[in-house]
Amino acid sequence: MAMKRYSAFAVAREAMSYHLGWERAWRSPQPKKKYDVIIIGAGGHGLASAYYLGKNHGITNVAIIEKGWLGGGNTGRNTTIIRSNYLQDPSAAIYNKALSLYETMSQDLNYNVMFSPRGLLMLGQTEHEVRGYKRTVHANNLQGVSTEWISPERVKKLVPIINIDGPRYPVLGALYQARGGTARHDAVAWGYARACSAMGMDVIQQCEVTGVRSEAGKVVGIDTTKGAIDCDKLGVVVAGHSSLLAEMAGFRLPIESLALQALVSEPIKPCMDVVVMANTVHGYMSQSDKGEMVIGGGTDGFNNYTQRGSFHHIEETVRALVETFPMISRLKMLRQWGGIVDMTGDRSPLISKTPVENIFVNCGWGTGGFKSIPGSGWAMAELMAKGHSPLAEEFSMYRFREGKFIDESVAAGVAH
Ligand SMILES: Cc1cc2nc3c(=O)[nH]c(=O)nc-3n(C[C@H](O)[C@H](O)[C@H](O)COP(=O)(O)OP(=O)(O)OC[C@H]3O[C@@H](n4cnc5c(N)ncnc54)[C@H](O)[C@@H]3O)c2cc1C
Q1: Which pLDDT score is estimated for 125?
Q2: 330: which DSSP letter?
Q3: Over residues 302-316, mean pLDDT
Q4: Where is each Rhodanese domain found (predicted)?
Q5: How much is the pLDDT for 1?
Q6: Which of 21, 211, 260, 376 has its CA 20 to 30 A from that of 93?
Q7: DSSP string, 301-327
Q8: Which domains are seen in the chain, by residue range?
Q9: CA distance linking residue 215 with residue 357, whole number of Å
């Protein structure tokens, strides 16, 4: 299913012909009766899982089933921060793989995902936090992940708008990852969808999965609002809705679902060209290419599926950021939204086989799974194709039974 390549020449050619020659970026087919693999969830992780099934393993008789529109879940709702400065070795491996894939994603997908490795700072504002981050820097250096601890003076140089003498917590330094940054979240979903469609896969939107069918402990298909579809293998990649899908399949997951929210300001001239996370006061901020200040808050303190934010969080987050960046007190906030994140007890994901044969889950990315999309898709595809993936090995759902936690509560960087 050849697709015309996007290029500067294509833009010039179309400019000369009233832009009538652009093809649809992906097809919108009706579901077939049966597929080798069905992936539920057309967020970044589901689409990336499908993409690497095709690209790395030659499996293309695949459908990606989405109840809404692709990228309309957390993938299109996040603050787009990308970094790989986690503490534990299995995390470093998968997040660093993801970061490497982000670096070449636009070329690989022939789709501009606007990856911007502008540098990322996690501020140390208490002695305890400083010790924690220094420990992470040492661990990262042993893992081959390049991060450093920088002084308050260097922080000020990188972020002139910051107030390092904060009224409550002074900035004592920062964990700095120069390779970290942002990418355009929708473009990541759209780029993968286009590449999947070009490989002959079916991306089926507005199709909710309502049941999972199995026989003799093995999956045979799903029920959807567009009818029953059979499959040999099923990947469940639905973030905050993972427990609901697991319930349909007859097992339970160690997942809690919570709303996490973000907001953006009115657009202003460029004033900050790095990403800053201030975890003690709790808020994180970067500036989008449009000029909006993109601001991330915390999770609700109770489980819910509301997909919107709550007012007290807006107030707490903005208060935290006003003391860190006093100039934002003059900004108007434009809009605010929430997504349903899927939290595990150790704040690390599940990429795992399940009690039902040939059902695999990829979830539990919680507040921080945008950055891991390509690495997670790579590992999930390998697990589904071969039954084993070195990158996914430690992220089995059974680790909770065995007490083999991968504790990333601090590196997750968001209070929950
Ligand atoms: C406000 C906010 C800020 C964030 N900031 C960051 C950040 O800065 N950096 C970072 O790395 N991560 C961040 N995250 C986390 C990140 O967005 C998620 O971890 C990631 O996007 C999850 O991707 P996904 O593909 O697993 O899920 P999703 O994108 O949510 O996709 C799952 C899809 O499954 C579909 N689905 C659900 N149920 C069904 C069903 N029954 N049938 C069919 N389809 C179904 C949904 O409609 C959805 O489209 C943030 C999240 C939020 C909410």
Answers
A1: 95
A2: G
A3: 86
A4: 37-81
A5: 64
A6: 260
A7: SS-----S--HHHHHHHHHHHHHHSGG
A8: 32-111+185-254+346-402 (3.50.50.60), 120-180+257-343 (3.30.9.10)
A9: 10
211 alpha carbon – ligand 1 mean position (Å): 21
Mean residue pLDDT of the chain comes to 95
Is residue 416 scored above 60 in pLDDT? no
CA-nearest of 262, 276, 271, 264 to 125 is 276
Mean pLDDT of 164-186: 96
Q: Is there a contact between 350 and 397 (Cβ–Cβ < 8 Å)?
A: yes
The candidate with the shortest Cα–Cα distance to 278, out of 131, 181, 174, is: 174
Phi then psi for 414, rounded to 5 degrees?
Answer: -125, 135
User: What is the distance between the alpha carbons of residues 295 and 53, in angstroms, rounded to a whole number?
Assistant: 34
List the structure tokens of 86: 């986690």
Q: Identify whether the C-beta of residue 392 lies closer than 8 Å to the C-beta of residue 379.
A: yes
Q: How far apart are CA 267 and CA 26, in angstroms?
A: 31
CA of 252 from ligand 1 middle (Å) equals 20
Q: What is the Cα Rg of the chain in Å?
A: 21
Residue 23 pLDDT greater than 70, yes or no: yes
Span 41-66, pLDDT tens digits: 999 999 999 999 999 999 999 999 99
Residues 149/150/151/152 CA torsion (nearest 10 deg): -110
CA distance 73 to 75: 5
Only one residue has tokens 């339970």, namely 252
Question: Please, what is the end-to-end C-alpha distance for the chain in angstroms?
Answer: 45
To test the pocket of ligand 1, the residue of 47, 78, 96, 341 to mutate (highest count of ligand atoms within 8 Å of its CB) is 78
> Among candidates 26, 31, 27, 29, which has minimal Cα distance to 225?
31
Angle between the N-to-C axes of helices 44-57 and 373-386, in degrees from 0 to 180, rounded to the nearest 10: 50
Global model pTM greater than 0.90: yes
Helix (H, G, I), strand (E, B) or coil at 360: strand
Cβ of 43 less than 6 Å from ligand 1: yes
pLDDT at 32 over 80: yes
What is the mean pLDDT of the segment spanning 152-163? 98
Q: 7, 202 in Cβ contact below 8 A?
A: no
On whether the CB atoms of residues 166 and 125 are closer than 8 A, the answer is yes
List the single range of 75-84, 115-124, 155-164, 401-410 with lowest mean pLDDT: 401-410
